[in-house]
Write a structure and sequence with these properties.
Low-confidence stretches: 2-17
Radius of gyration: 18 Å
Structural class: mainly beta
Number of helices: 1
Distance between the termini: 38 Å
Largest sheet: 5 strands, antiparallel
Mean pLDDT: 89
Number of strands: 14
């Protein structure tokens, strides 16, 4: 019986660590994304500062990342910061004073606007700050990077 409980606990901790998502943000004015982990690889596109990416693979100074549109590419690890940002993916996002749909509006957010991630809110909401300093809550369905 103890063995089964131990195996179950180990299984849960392993699956939780496997499911952990690692988001980073671009730390340089513009970073090049490649189709392979090498500066000699084909250059795919540029990604601008503060844009969030999801790390999916790590390989000796390189990270394979996914962007908000689902594109996978390689980037030099040194080009990313630990700081976390979000990007508005809805046609229009809404930053509100509280975690309620009827809370006063702090501001409307255009698609592709980057926000600083400040922490989780109640279910379905996240606390964020706009670059102009406005702070509030946005629905998690309106942003990517969580």
């Amino acid at each position: 019986m103890k063995c089964r409980l131990l195996l179950a606990a180990l299984s849960l901790s392993f699956s939780a660590s496997v499911m952990a998502v690692d988001y980073r943000s671009v730390a340089v004015p513009a970073a090049i994304l490649y189709d392979a982990p090498s500066q000699k690889a084909k250059k795919l596109y540029l990604i601008k500062a503060q844009t969030p990416v999801e790390v999916v693979v790590r390989l000796e100074g390189w990270l394979k990342v996914r962007d908000a549109e689902g594109t996978l590419a390689w980037i030099e690890a040194a080009q990313l910061a630990e700081g976390r940002t979000l990007i508005v993916t809805a046609a229009t996002g809404e930053l509100r004073q509280a975690e309620q749909a009827d809370a006063p509006l702090v501001g409307r957010l255009d698609k592709w606007v980057v926000l600083e991630y400040l922490g989780p809110g109640t279910t379905g909401w996240v606390k964020a700050r706009h670059r102009d300093g406005a702070t509030g809550f946005v629905r998690s369905t309106q942003v990517w990077g969580l």
